Amino acid sequence: MTYTSNADLGGRPCSEPIVDEPEDVHFHAAWEARALAVTLAMGATGNWNLDMGRAARECLPDYAKRSYYQIWIAALEGLLLERGLVSRDELDAGRALTPPLPIPRRLLANEVSAVLAKGSPTVRPVTRPARFAVGNVVRTRAGRVAHHTRLPAYAAGRVGRIDNVLGTHVFADAHAQGLGESPQWLYTVVFDGRELWGNETANGLAVSVDAWEPYLEPA
Amino acid sequence: MSGHDPDHDYSHLDEMELRVRALETVLGEKGYIDPSALDVLIDTYQTKIGPRNGARVIAKAWIDPVYREWLLRDATAAIASLGYSGRQGEHMIVVENTPRRHNIVVCTLCSCYPWPVLGLPPVWYKSAPYRSRVVRDPRGVLADFGVSVPADVDIRVWDSTAEVRYLVLPQRPSGTDGLTEEQLAATVTRDAMIGVGLPRVSG
């Protein structure tokens, strides 16, 4: 079984310039606003979790060719089709052709503000001691895994230092696969720029990732 | 008006407009979504939740040492005390720029961003050039934003790979001693709170 994320961009060769934009630009077309809202509203139904949503986006084969909201819409359609919540015929017709499936929840207009303000915290009660403490030296997992993961390729198989212990959090890898929350200790791991990019790297660069305990071994 | 209703003139809609409209219609007819909830969501991120929230947090930290200490120790609670909490800001950490260290925030894997204090991420934050380059060549990225950080200042890039969200506390600009909290907030740009800009003092 293979799994390919097309979204893991850190450190990839790219010479395109970055173009800033004003703070009051929210959307670049009317449909982008609807795409945001429909994605959030369907996310709130509880038919999939945040990590399943991310997995659906990063697996899109033409990820690099799409704008961000195009990615969101393609992934949303995929999640709906996979679960039989809508059919391809319905999307093509632009109207419902069959009765709906039952869904866990429906986000109502008068609940939006409270639902956004509450969010979805991922911290869970501690059930076992943390394996690492601030200052410990660790090596990150080197091999590829055949599922959604949150260890960027540029930080795989590298030696870093525990910079912060962040508590136990829902483990994205398990959560994305439908294996439950499987909470794990989460750490900020900081790497020297040279460890990531080689000895020609300029002085004084440090890069950190937030890494769950299963990504780490003592070094 | 000429009777030319743009809402019903499909000839000018491109493929994405039609595709999203079709999707929204199907989901509404199925009863999975409340169409008026979509309007509330859009209005919220257009008018209520944006970088002026974060600017208020930063300005308060600049003038109130007790708040600053709280913000650096427990950002989630300190930010919630000003009314900003929830989706994509459930677990906040504020990182402080100093004369020795400049902080920059990114999400190389997708678009993780502290929504309650900064609103929706700008397009460049979600795009390949920023996500690929900033972890490798942050000074080159800063140059694209017209920002130069002295060579003897360390750069720390925070890749938001889990559900912790980061906000940069910029250094308070010199010459702002007489400003009110509101005037200070006006100097705090979105880009300064991501770490790719500096506060902007006018005049």
Offer a concise description of the structure:
The complex is a heterodimer of chains A (219) and B (203). By secondary structure, chain A is of the alpha+beta class. In chain A, 28% of the residues lie in helices and 17% in strands.
How would you characterize this protein structure?
The complex is a heterodimer of chains A (about 220) and B (about 200). By secondary structure, chain A is α+β, with helices and mostly antiparallel strands. Chain A is built from 7 helices and 6 strands. Chain A has 2 domains: about 30-120, Cyclin A, domain 1, CATH 1.10.472; about 125-219, SH3 type barrels (Roll). The longest helix of chain A has 15 residues, at about 70-80. The mean pLDDT of chain A is about 95. Chain B is an alpha/beta fold and about 200 residues long. Chain B folds into 2 domains: about 15-45, no CATH class; about 50-195, Alpha-Beta Complex (Nitrile Hydratase, Chain A). Chain B has 11 helices and 4 strands. A two-stranded parallel ribbon of chain B has the order 1-4. Chain B has a two-stranded parallel sheet with strand order 2-3. In chain B, helix 3 packs across helix 10. The longest helix of chain B is centred in the first third of the chain and has 16 residues, at about 15-30. Classes of the chains: A alpha+beta (about 220), B alpha/beta (about 200). At the A-B interface, helix 1, helix 2, helix 3, helix 4 and helix 5 of A face helix 1, helix 2, helix 7, helix 8 and helix 9 of B.
